[in-house]
Write a structure and sequence with these properties.
The protein is an alpha+beta fold and about 750 residues long. It contains eleven helices and 40 strands. A hairpin with a 2-residue loop joins strand 23 and strand 24. The two termini are about 30 Å apart. This is Alpha-glucosidase. It holds the Pfam family Gal_mutarotas_2. Keywords: Glycoprotein, Glycosidase, Hydrolase, Signal. One of its GO terms (molecular function) is hydrolase activity, hydrolyzing O-glycosyl compounds.
Length: about 750
Amino acid sequence: MSLVLAGDRGLGIMAIVFKFIERRRRFRSKIFARRPMNLKDRAWGLWTLPHSGDMFFLFCSSPSIKLNSSSTPTKIGKGYRLISIEETPGGGIVGVLQVKQKNNIYGPDIPLLQLHVKHETQDRLRVHITDAEKQRWEEYSGSELIFSYIADPFSFAVKRKSNGQTLFNSSSGGSESFGEMVFKDQYLEISTQLPKDASLYGLGENTQPHGIKLYPGDPYTLYTTDISAINLNADLYGSHPVYMDLRKVKGKADAHAVLLLNSNGMDYTSLIGRPAPMPYWAFGFHQCRWGYHNLSVVEDVVENYKKARIPLDVIWNDDDHMDGHKDFTLNPNNYPRPKLLAFLEKIHSIGMKYIVIIDPGIGVNSSYGVYQRGIADDVFIKYEGEPYLAQVWPGAVNFPDFLNPKTVDWWGDEIRRFHELVPVDGLWIDMNEASNFCSGLCKIPKGKVPIGYKTIATSAAHYNGVLEYDAHSVYGFSQSIATHKALQGLEGKRPFILSRSTYVGSGKYAAHWTGDNQGTWEDLKYSISTMINFGIFGVPMVGSDICGFYPAPTEELCNRWIEVGAFYPFSRDHANFYSPRQELYQWDSVAESARTALGMRYRILPYLYTLSYEAHTTGAPIARPLFFSFPDYTECYGLSTQFLLGSGLMISPVLEQGKSQVKALFPPGSWYSVFDMTQVITSEGGQYVTLDAPLHVVNVHLHQNTILPMQQGGMISKEARMTPFSLVVTFPAGASDGKAAGETFPR
């Protein structure tokens, strides 16, 4: 089974609500613009969000919220009728839709719409509905997906030719609860029927308390926002309007994906861009903290990891290295450049790396060269013709407009200048939803401004007059592209960029961490679901702050978290400066767990690196839900407490306080413990097994018919990759012959 994801660089965001109705589920997509207003008008659970005037669906196949109310929701209009249709030379169809009955709920209807339908590949169909005045594009044909329609009221369906399965059907079917398609400047609505047993995944970024499956009754809002990941079912840092539908058809798994975008589209992931290939060292362990107030603290951290014999590849700085929180600067007292350069020369000589943070807000300061050059090059987002004024860590700031080609060049030049000042090995772009401590337009503050969770005013203008109203959720994405271009241009090597805000296609340029989590057992569990979801979103290099960003984790929790986090694709310990120190050597017991878990990570680095190559060439995630490898085994469809690395390495961690055993699901086959290959579990048809898991033990098993490349590990990835290789080959237990397969990407 394969999953094709889809996306584009278009503008706009969607919100999606699921309903549970009688014996079937309906999927209702409501999209309308977030505008500068009091949001008390969120009628029966709708969410406001930007819309750029068209609606786009991508149906991708792989052949092998509820509003819990007794009242019936209000219908908006009576939909559209198809008044003309014709075939195009490329084999697609183009039609014109006319509104049946106008109304002014959420603004006037678009009177005439243009419908475009085309097969992009055999397994991918594009349906594009836009204002009739919009420019057309070319069409061409495919064969596996069938598009059909009803003229009045207009609705369409997409079916699979091979088995007759309906993948999407927008008809209301005369339902009293669901109306026909609605299309306005600030509101779009469409719904589809789903089979009762469909399992849905995706729609993020959000922290899902019920696990990886989308859950009837939960809202899924897509609007990039600077709120911490501890908020459940809330719109967080990224926007990924794609869902995957996994269902059983005649005993076999059948999957497809639907991408919903309200802008011109571009294969999810061949469509949006395959994930970026990562440098080898990025799969080592990373250590960060907001609160390393001077260089000597950083030097002590590196030395203490060495003394504790815990692997460490990358040391990070949050904004402690900056002069007054200003980007591309050094604090001359706490991080004097000569001493910092000497430290970097020392760690670079043994293969370690150094990464620092950059926020998008550029401090308004007439003596600050970065700001001066930005003003001279006219690179900032505008409000009424002047640079838009906001408030972040440096105080008053202007935000670069990364949709402007001049800004991309200016940003690249500032990164070049900073790299000459400090030879960093990667960049961490944070606060790029974008976060603004003011509500709307700021005034130059005379005192301290209270910190709030705000963003850029929707009436601010980007390049060529594009409003923030339309461009909001692509801000971090556009910054990732500019940063990737700049770093790649410095030395021609694979850049490493970590971005908080993401959008459809961000994985082509950046890694992601899941933001401000808490040091709680619940957040430990949530981290697995979020990690898996980002693999589906096409951002496979992902992980959560190990031990939690805040507040203080317990010693037991930190033990268990490193046992999970050692197997995140991106593995980093990071904490808030308010929290006590939580580097892995702070507790003897955590250090022991770290040596065990990270010791195994550094032995399987060739495998992780190969999975990164696979992600880059095929779009397959690094960390995967079990159903990716066992699609016909429905027991694993909702499993969110275990995960796979690649197709056959399964991690079954302890996620509850005080437990010394874990109940793990083993899909059919033989499973070998990677810590002791003499220990094997044979699962005939799939079964739960209770495993011993005392502190310092994490259960990792390798499936039959697999070849796993391993090395002997080390304290740094550069050291580990110089050790001898071994190949672990697994066959079904007791078999007299067999066949196994595996890959390793040459370095």
